[in-house]
Amino acid sequence: MEDKNPKDVELVHEALHEPAQVARYLRALADGIELGRLRLRSGEREIELHPASLCTFELRSQSERQRVKLQVQLRWREVAVGTEANRLEIASE
């Protein structure tokens, strides 16, 4: 079995919620994405994410026999907080 990097954390939450609660979760996600910082916690697991300036956004919906599925997926490359990986400096000295 392959060991995962100790910094790799998977957090999965699946439960039934009223639409109003789902809307609150989605608003909190939107706010965190806009601010560039998401803190997620479920039980003992906690993860902090830092959405980059460019994210891949994927939306899928499917309806079959009165069962509806909506999937939202975001992807980005995480840059360590405090690094200036995308900064360009040019000098002619």
Average pLDDT, rounded to a whole number, is: 85
| Topology order in helix (H) and strand (E) letters | HEEEE
Instruction: State which percent range the strand residues make up.
Output: 25-35%
Structure summary, number of beta strands: 4
Shape by Cα distribution: elongated
| Whole-angstrom Rg | 18 Å
- Helix tally? 1
Q: Largest sheet, order of strands side by side?
A: 1-2
What separation lies between the terminal Cα atoms?
52 Å
**Which ranges are low-confidence, i.e. pLDDT below 50, for 5 or more consecutive residues?**
none
Structural class call reads alpha+beta
Write up this protein.
By secondary structure, the chain is α+β, with helices and mostly antiparallel strands. Helix content is 18%, strand content 30%. It contains one helix and four strands. Strands 1-2 form a two-stranded antiparallel sheet. The mean pLDDT is 85.
List the helices and strands and how they pair.
Elements: H1 19-35, E1 38-42, E2 45-49, E3 56-64, E4 67-75
Antiparallel strand pairs: 1-2, 3-4
List keywords for this structure.
single chain; 93 residues; two-stranded antiparallel ribbon; two-stranded antiparallel sheet; elongated
Outline of the structure:
The protein is an alpha+beta fold and 93 residues long. It has one helix spanning 19-35, and strands at 38-42, 45-49, 56-64, 67-75.
